[in-house]
Amino acid sequence: MKILNKYFAITALVLVSGCRKLDIAPTDAYSVLNFWSSDANVYNALNNNYSLMYNSGLYFAAEGLSDNAYSQTNTDLIQIASGNANAQTPKFAGDWAYYYATIKSCNQFLANVDKNTTLGAATLGRVKAETRFIRAFEDFNLTKWYGDVPLVSTDISQDEAKVIQRTPKAEVINFILSELNAILPALPSKDQLPAAENGRITKGAALALQARVLLYQGNRMSDVVTTCESLMNGTSNGTYSLNPSYSNLFSDPATNRNNPETILSLQYVPATTRTWTDFWDFAPNSVGGRVNSLAPSQELVNDYIMLNGKGINDAGSGYNESNPYAGRDPRLTATIVYDRYNWNSGGGVNGTSKMIYIKPGSDPTRPGPDEYSSGRQSSSPTGYYWRKYFDPSALANFTSGNNIHLFRYAEILLDYAEAKSSLGQMDATVWNKTIGALRTRAGFTDPAALNYPGGDLTNVIRRERRVELAMEGARIDDIRRWKIAETVLNGYVHGAKFSGDPATDNGYIRAQLRRFNTNRDYLWAIPGGDLSLDSKLTQNPGY
Question: Residue 137 contacts by C-beta under 8 Å, 6 or more apart in sequence?
């Protein structure tokens, strides 16, 4: 990274030095003329693109945009969720700039890397394929949020950027899919990666992104099936399976970094090299949490079924409102902290084992509110906290080096189940390979929950997808592509049933009133600042 920063500094210096000949490369330092001749510089530039691909802030904030969680501290998320966003909303501009900055870096890499003459054709083909994947991932994020977006596939100048037009979304999607198909031959399978290269993009990652892109279009389900089967059947694209433990995927450092389920993760390094601290603002105050910035919703909690496979409101479910977390899908306890949660940290700086009392007055050692208090930012506004992604080996302030999963094999199974169901091809065999397998891994044993139920499984599959992928940023994409956002994002997001709270719906906390405009909010605003710089850009409806 030091070499890369030095390269950028030299680049800026050369560009502004009008009195220096640009065709003479210095012999004692790297310049724009000889930077790429160094193999180490090529890999530094590639690693830089990896670091720009995505980050923990984007990953977790997506939950606060959905009906899975509520943020009481993030002004942008509050503004968007309440229906008050506009073309000047900072997140719209920030995300747009982030994705395009990464695309710019990728395009610069692709425009220059062939200047290297020592790495060999196969190696250069691979690093270019990895970079094209990263660029395709950014393009997909842009088009899913903003719709038609400028498709920038070469390293354009500032002047060219000021007159670029929006490309129809369909063309952007076709470009992404063609890129993913083109790079497959140059990428290794997961099985071909040496341990030192864990985290690099593989054939499996390209296929997983392809499956996600196809699924989100809604009318390419046959292609989704084909793509998923290329990962589910055989080993030529890598061997994947569900990790035996759901919770260990996120919290156990050894499993998190090396397991059969991960297809692609954001790579972090413990201690001070590359870490993230978001969990500091997710955990209960009594175990070291700071400001609660993202609180799980009652709506999410409600979707965790009972161990007998029934929803909590189904007849014969056995749900007991006075003991609401008993007999539930084990992924609830692996994901969310609720009243009287038995917090076992497993050691580390934040090590403690204690009962988490959240309901006001429930702590026998302390009268009055403890982990929940209306208006107190250190407390959850919903009465829930996150457990998923807790790192027991974290340093002070929950500084974690655990990886953050972008693509898991579980998502492939869910994609496959949804696609097969939508095509009318769901049967016991498909169910057992997908939903049944996920529930078995989660800890279900009752045949009523595991056996193929038949009938219309649309809502069953959607609910399964919600709880399996909770806190992984998928929910907001799902409710937008299913076109149910206007239903689930209009009205109050609720918290736990603490009957003593002054503002409740049948005892359930009203955390935030949300508004979603069907005619506007399925697309984000093109940032106002970019509209003023580029005369060819147009705005999305309603902004």
Answer: 53, 54, 209
* Under 8 Å between Cβ of 522 and 145: no
Q: How far apart are CA 306 and CA 325, in angstroms?
A: 9
How far apart CA 347 and CA 319 sit, in angstroms, is 34
pLDDT given for residue 16 in this prediction: 35
Q: How far apart are the first and last CA of the chain?
A: 40
Q: What is the residue type of 112?
A: N
Of 407, 482, 416, whose CA–CA distance to 227 is shortest?
416
pLDDT score, position 505: 87
Rounded-to-integer distance, Cα 192 and Cα 88, Å: 47
Interval 85-111: pLDDT, tens: 999 999 999 999 999 999 999 999 999
DSSP secondary structure letter of residue 164: P
Distances (CA, A) of 75 to 89, 489, 511, 516: 9, 17, 15, 17
pLDDT of residue 273: 83
Give 257's contacts (C-beta < 8 A, 6+ positions apart).
Answer: 198, 402, 403
510 pLDDT higher than 60: yes
Structure-token match 């050692």, residue found: 365
DSSP assignments along 220-252, one per residue? -HHHHHHHHHHHHS-STT------S-TTHHHH-
pLDDT given for residue 1 in this prediction: 32
Token representation of residue 140: 């997909």
For 379-392, write each residue's pLDDT tens digit.
899 999 999 999 99
Query: What is the number of H-type helices and E-type strands within the chain?
Result: 22, 11
Q: CA of 262: how far to CAs of 49, 259, 404, in Å?
A: 20, 6, 10
pLDDT of residue 504: 80
Bridge-based pairing of strands 69-70 and 295-296 is antiparallel
Closest CA to 336 of 285, 284, 262, 411: 284
> Which amino acid is located at 31 in the chain?
S
Closest CA to 493 of 479, 504, 483, 502: 504
Asked if 312 contacts 303 with a C-beta cutoff of 8 angstroms, the reply is: no
Q: What is the pLDDT of residue 498?
A: 81
Q: How many CA atoms lie within 13 A of 80 on its CB side?
A: 29
Q: Is the pLDDT of residue 499 over 70?
A: no
Q: Indicate the pTM of the whole model.
A: 0.92
User: Which residue, chain included where needed, has tokens 């399925």?
Assistant: 522
Residues 6+ apart with CB under 8 A from 208: 231, 263, 264, 407, 411, 412
Q: Give the pLDDT confidence of 20-45 residue by residue, as tens digits.
A: 344 444 555 566 778 999 999 999 99
- Taking residue 109's Cβ as centre, other Cβ atoms within 10 Å add up to 23
Amino acid at 139: D
Angle between helices 90-112 and 56-65 (to 10 degrees): 140
